[in-house]
Amino acid sequence: MAGLSRIGAALVAAALLGCAGTATDTAADSDLLLGASEDTATISSELTGGVAIGSTLKTTASLNLRTGAGMEYRVRLVIPAGAQVTTINRSTPSGSWYNIRYNGIEGWSHGGYLTLVRSAAPSPTQPTPNPGNASARDAAIQRAKGAVGFGYRWGKGRWIPFGVTSANKGVCTGSCPNCSYRGEYGADCSGFAAKVWTVPSWNDVMTNEAHPYSTWDFVRSNSQWSTVSRSSLKKADALVYNDGSAGHIVIYESGDGWGSSWTYEARGCAYGIVHNLRTLGSAYKGIARAGY
Questions:
Q1: What's the confidence (pLDDT) of residue 27?
Q2: Full domain range(s) for residue 98
């Protein structure tokens, strides 16, 4: 019974933190390496710094498409040499691994066997007819941009604005909340949103550790934020859900609140903090920070 109580307590804690990003398949000790050897590959200089989301890359050898950014993840399929793939979800690699789509199937492949065919145009900026406090919203988006590339760090929240490197970005492995993290910087979805919104007001130093709220908090009324229609979202508003067992929150940038939207988010263990084009389900509701 004591063991069951501990399991129950863990489930409750996970529900309250409620920052379920994207689950991934891990523990691939039975995988067979079918494509080119990833442990000897070196990513080219044209891809080291990243490329825009939606860019087209070409494989230079038969290439494993894995379920996560690392050789410990299982092989989903092998992409043939000379095939074209599209970058998704993030503009920078996770280590040497690019998040890509091939023939409608998404996964991660080593950049050492990829070359750039063409770069995508940068994400659009949506004009706002009634921007409210535009400078505050712009500042929030800048804070979000400054975190892109850092890892997904369950129950935490801090980063060095625009200071991510391969050495400090952090590495998340496993499936959260039962994940592990190596590094001192990074955030989960609610820790990220609180920093971007600087709520409470003392949470305004990006390098200071803070995780004051969960999605359980964000989905409820608070003097620091309020519900807004998804049809009239403005830059730096948020979309959040929490169903009692899991939750997630993203920072909205532009696009259709009920369709495809450009967002910033701590998406999950395999993704980290990303700028990506998302279509979110009806469980999400719009919220706006007070003063924005």
A1: 33
A2: 45-118
Cβ neighbours of 5 (radius 10 Å): 9
Query: Do 253 and 114 reside in the same domain of the chain?
Result: no
| Helix and strand numbers, DSSP H then E, in the chain | 5, 17
Question: Which residue blocks in 32-172 are alpha helix, DSSP H?
Answer: 45-48, 134-145
102 with 208, same domain? Answer: no
Whether residue 77 is found in the same domain as residue 163: no
Low-confidence residues of the chain: pLDDT under 70: 1-33, 121-134
Task: Give the C-alpha separation, 250 to 270, whole Å.
Answer: 16
The first and second tokens of residue 121, run together, are 């145009």
On whether the CB atoms of residues 21 and 268 are closer than 8 A, the answer is yes
184 and 249 in a single domain? The answer is yes
Buried b / exposed e over 11-25, threshold 16 CB at 10 Å, is eeebbebbbbbbebe
How many angstroms from the chain centroid is the CA of residue 178? 18
CATH number at residue 113: 2.30.30.40
Q: What is the pLDDT at residue 94?
A: 82
CA-to-CA dists, residue 181 to 56, 247, 265, 271, angstroms: 31, 20, 18, 13
